[in-house]
Amino acid sequence: MNRRFLRQALPFLTLAVVLAATFYVQPRTMSYFGLNLMLQYAVPIALATIAQMFIITVNDLDLSIGPFVGLVSCIGATLLLDNPLLGILALLVLIAAYGAVGALIHIRNLPSIVVTLGLSFVWLGIAVLILPSPGGKAPVWLKALMGVQTPWVPFPIIAAIVIGVVVHLALMLSSYGVIARGAGGNPKALTRAGWSMLRTKVVMYMLAGFFGVLSGLALLGLTTSGDAHVADRYTLYSIAGVILGGGEFIGGRVSPLGAVVGALTLALAGSFLIFLKISPDWQIGAQGAILIIVLALRALVSYGEQKR
Amino acid sequence: MSEQAIRLDGVEKSFGAVRALAGVDLTVATGECLGLVGHNGAGKSTLMHVLSGNLTPSAGTLSIAGKPYDRLWTAAAAQAEGVRCVFQELSLCPNLTVAENVRIVHRSLKGFGWKGRAHALIRQKLDEIFPNHGISPDDEIAGLAIGQRQMAEIARAFTLTDGRLRLVILDEPTSSLDAVTAQQLLAYVKKETARGTAIILISHLLGEILTTADRILVMKDGKTVADRKAADFTRNSLVAAMGSEAREHTRGVAKNSTAEVMVRAQPRSGGSASLEARKGEIIGLTGLAGHGQTRMLLQIYERRQAEVKGALSFIAGDRQSDGVFNLWSIGRNITTRSLAALRKGGLIDLAAEQRLAEDWKQRMAIRTPDVNNNILTLSGGNQQKALFARALASDAAIILMDDPMRGVDIGTKQEVYAMIGAEAEKGRTFIWYTTEIEELTHCDRAYVFRNGAIVAALGSDELTEEKVLQASFAEHAA
After folding, report:
1. How far is A117 from chain B (nearest CA, A)?
2. Which of A177, A207, A279, B322 would give a disulfide with B316, using CB separation of 3.0 to 4.6 Å?
């Protein structure tokens, strides 16, 4: 029981450690403005991480989420601006496409990694067709939303808490969330109880698409212009975020709150490394090192749990 | 007692060429406990999967409460009609809590406060069936011991939210329960049938069946061969109904017992009896499937607490997962065990490898025009021959076989039996786990396994189906 608690607390401890280290290196970040600046990009990363988490819940992996987020930002900066109705329609089509991919993967029993890897080039291709070079403009309301100045607590923190709590309620506490997680834990048991695995997978993929769209729009609100390549790193960020947050690749073990915390940790780690004057070239490697350390700690905790 | 809960007429089911069910009729009355027994592969599990809607039969009808069910009988339909099944391999989601697993089988557990209702439901049922169970509804399944998981799943099958409980199928429900909880369950079965629920109890523990069931159905080769009141059966008549008459055995001559002992091992999984195999002997391992025979073979193969003289080779029964290298040619699949002997100057002598493969293709009569074809171009039986060739072509003096004839046609079997006999004459030792009792007629001696221990050693003159079954189904000490 103690160790189970420890494992669940690990993501939060990691965030606390990275936060403390950042404050130590650069005390001026310990302010409303500092936190706002450091964490604003955590919001789209958190949304993409949640999208990835829905896919991981049903034992799949989405390697296309980064380019997908880029595509959404391109659509947002062009179509959504010029013709809101058409823009919204295009985004809905994208969500439906995610559902269709989920159905395809389930019915044909395809490896999700291969399908989504192929798909990532499709998303990127469409994005480049829409916006060959970075440009366009974010809708005014989107910029206003992402730049909102909330009293006392910076907006990114409030947004992260809201995202985490809403998804936690839906996936961890609702009765349908049980079915979704059960689909990852023991698909056979679910089928035997009369549930449709196909439907469950489609729902989870569409949720992933929905959160991918939210992520793209949030990112656009921050960058204010569209770019097909803006979110290429998000694929790895999102997977790392889910795992940092206590999720596991298979078995339906995920934690929405943990995933959001994992995303915050990754975003913060980026700032921390900049404060340490580590060149951006090394950052991905340094973030990887953080990931390895946390996973090693978790393995250690789990090992002790098994031995008990 | 007279009202029908569920009824099957002429149900058939085939998997490819294998006929798992060959026209089964089955009726369960409300409030009746029907015992179902049969040897491995008799079709019990298939029948249960048909009843629970997880397999669609090739032919036959299903009636509920006397009326034919004319829509498609699916798992969802079975749930809606109050048919539940506790499968032998458990159907719980390990990542969810006990209460959450209850939710999975109850569609009506939703909306605000569902968790509280699920908690109350499972706690009440666990308390009723297994007092002092020590399970909390908030426990994650992965954190429970195997016996507790089985208790949770059994209790879940008896929980009721809406509709009624018509039939509960218990497939080997006591396999992971200790004697006390097993008794609690059997007592509850009587209580539940008194309330009007029909129960089908499948068990290898005949004592359990004889004391609990009202009526017993015996299955053999996908058919029901006996259907009588439990009181009309005795242990012996039940065993007799499950098996067939004793068969002629082919290896009557007892081997020279002074030959060198090649293997001596005592199962790590239990018991004090040990196994012994002499040079040139064919030793059978038998008993019910999964009672420690494969573990014994692996223990010998890994030479853990086993005295082994000479090189070993292992022939896997599950070709797809343990035997065949899918991407390799037939030849490479045969020679892979002998590559060390085929080396020349640190590299593989390709010509010698080719010769070895060709040689064994001839000797095993593997039906292929070219050994360089991919292994998957062969039929299942011929793939198995290639695996035999792999072992026989090697320098192994002792060959371990893990039920290797699964799904192999009879013609191929005869060829391989002859080959095994000839190789044993030449002094090779075979240790052969088989689920087909007939195959024991090719053995010099057989060891019967139960719960991981050797419970009987039968000489070639005692190797009858009845003797093996008697030893396999010992009385439960509850």
Report:
1. 24
2. B322
